[in-house]
Specification:
Number of strands: 9
Radius of gyration: 21 Å
Shape: globular
Structural class: alpha/beta
Number of helices: 12
Order of helices and strands: HHHHHEEHEHEHHEEHHEHEE
């Protein structure tokens, strides 16, 4: 398409994406909004405006990439989560709405504990990825719960990949911005708790939890999400367990967390709906009291593990 109005491009692109995308209209709207810096209302108001050539070239390339299965967030480099815009690359998982359940619980429980303890809490965001969990919790405690800077917890963001930590660092500086919040964050490259010392009041985690045999199937649509962030059957030594249940990383994380949680501390962990009960059962072996929270589709999603 050499020249096109917003309406013409939109109609044409939606037709092109109908075969591969479950939400072609939304995809095209997001791409147009990103390219033109228009919100939904402006896209409607200026539907007969011609798209500048350079923008149209980018949009045509974006549609071609989307047709390969590449998610819109990797094309634009941005994904909205919990009201904040996160920078994402194919090195990190794209933040999903279901993870907001974990953030909601974390914010509420951390705020309650701060009020009860009147001391600086210590939080670990294990397998931090884009940093969406820690950053959303920290921003919400500061902005919506109006906690003063002195009482806001210290956050340790941990990931096995340096490339992933670079993405988390970028999001931290772009979203937190204020020096008094930025100084609450530290980053550690570590295979789970291998390089992490000390104890925490809360451990928050969305670890890899997909069974190995399901990962390849999941990625056949070309979505390009990182295998490292999905495959839950990788052992501490980087080998594959034969169990193929997506639980190996979770088992190691639960076992290690027993020595990294303060008495009365809590782990909040996102799991697959198919292994939430198994996660809860395994945690109870280690003396945790557990509770399961359901996601937006009423499926078990977040497992709370509290140690007395």
């Amino acid at each position: 398409m050499h020249s096109a109005t917003i309406r013409q491009f939109k109609n044409s692109a939606i037709k092109e994406l109908q075969e591969i995308s479950p939400s072609p209209e939304l995809d095209v709207q997001v791409l147009l909004s990103h390219a033109l810096n228009y919100d939904k209302t402006r896209l409607l108001l200026f539907a007969e405006n011609h798209i500048p050539d350079d923008k149209l070239e980018w949009l045509n390339e974006a549609v071609a990439k989307r047709k390969t299965g590449l998610p819109v967030a990797y094309i634009t480099g941005v994904k909205e989560f919990y009201g904040y815009d996160f920078f994402v690359t194919p090195d990190v998982l794209i933040p999903k709405p279901d993870t907001e359940i974990l953030v909601e619980q974390a914010v509420q429980q951390i705020a309650d504990k701060i009020r009860a303890n009147k001391r600086i809490l210590s939080i670990c965001d294990m397998c931090t990825g884009s940093g969406c969990i820690a950053i959303s919790v920290l921003m919400t405690l500061s902005e919506k719960y109006k906690l003063d800077d002195e009482s806001i917890p210290v956050f340790t963001m941990v990931d096995i990949s340096e490339k992933v930590l670079e993405v988390a660092r970028k999001n931290t500086s772009q979203i937190l911005k204020r020096p008094e919040l930025l100084q609450k964050i530290r980053f550690i490259r570590s295979n789970l708790f291998e390089n992490v010392t000390g104890r925490f009041d809360f451990i928050l985690s969305n670890p890899p939890y997909i069974p190995h045999s399901m990962v390849k199937e999941l990625l056949k649509d070309g979505r390009n999400e990182p295998v490292l962030a999905l495959d839950g059957d990788v052992t501490k030594d980087g080998e594959l367990t034969l169990k193929d249940d997506g639980m190996e990383v979770i088992r190691n994380l639960i076992e290690q967390s027993t020595i990294h949680l303060y008495t009365g501390g809590t782990t909040l962990m996102e799991t697959g709906e198919y292994n939430a009960e198994k996660t809860s059962d395994f945690a109870r072996i280690y003396g945790f009291k557990t509770k399961i929270y359901k996601d937006l589709e009423n499926q078990p999603r977040v497992v709370q593990m509290k140690i007395n």
